[in-house]
């Protein structure tokens, strides 16, 4: 009986430790062109994602090949969404044509697409519990 209680206690302790492990998100971007910088913003709620708040983390990673990886670590368990662009001309901004359509490659988590605008939180958000990897195609 003592052995059974010890085993149960170990399982509960291991489960609690695993639940507290920080989250890690890796985005593997298939880049549209092999130049520029992939700029990524990570959001933890629909308001921030919609522009009514700040991202929880950002990164800018130089493109050196067909694939560029961006990693966010030590994240609390929760829901997140990502917006990214490939800054081809180095001005740090998304370039657009006179009609407001982006002229530089961009993407959202889950490879979500929008309807007459950016993909919404409902399509782009995903759960982080431990390590998560997403393959994202910049278009």
Quick structural gist:
The protein is an alpha+beta fold.
Largest sheet: 5 strands, antiparallel
Mean pLDDT: 89
Total beta strands: 8
By DSSP (H or I, 4+ residues per run), the number of helices equals 3
Rg computed from alpha carbons, rounded to a whole number of angstroms: 19 Å
- First-last Cα distance: 60 Å
Low-confidence stretches: 1-18
As an assembly, this protein is single chain
Order of helices and strands: HEEHEEEEHEE
Please estimate the helix content: 10-25%
Tell the overall outline: globular
- Measured by DSSP, the beta-strand proportion falls in 35-45%
Q: Structural class of the helices, strands and pairings? A: alpha+beta
Top keywords for this entry?
single chain; 139 residues; alpha+beta; five-stranded antiparallel β-sheet; 3 helices; 8 strands; 38% strand; globular; disordered N terminus
Characterization of the model:
- Residues 1-18 have low confidence and may be disordered.
- The chain is globular and about 45 Å long.
- The longest helix is centred in the N-terminal third of the chain and has 18 residues, at 2-19.
- It has three helices and eight strands.
- It has 139 residues and is of the alpha+beta class.
- Helix content is 21%, strand content 38%.
- The strands form two sheets. Strands 2, 3, 5, 6 and 7 form a five-stranded antiparallel sheet that branches.
């Amino acid at each position: 009986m003592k052995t059974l209680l010890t085993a149960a206690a170990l399982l509960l302790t291991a489960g609690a430790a695993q639940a507290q492990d920080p989250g890690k998100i890796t985005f593997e971007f298939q880049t549209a062109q092999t130049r520029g910088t992939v700029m990524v913003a990570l959001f933890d709620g629909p308001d921030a994602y919609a522009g009514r708040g700040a991202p929880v983390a950002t990164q800018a990673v130089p493109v050196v090949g067909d694939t560029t990886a961006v990693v966010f670590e030590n994240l609390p368990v929760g829901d997140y969404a990502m917006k990214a662009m490939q800054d081809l001309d180095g001005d740090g901004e998304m370039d657009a044509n006179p009609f407001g359509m982006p002229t530089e490659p961009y993407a959202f988590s889950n490879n979500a697409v929008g309807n007459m605008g950016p993909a919404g939180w409902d399509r782009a958000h995903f759960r982080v519990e431990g390590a998560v990897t997403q393959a994202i195609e910049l278009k």
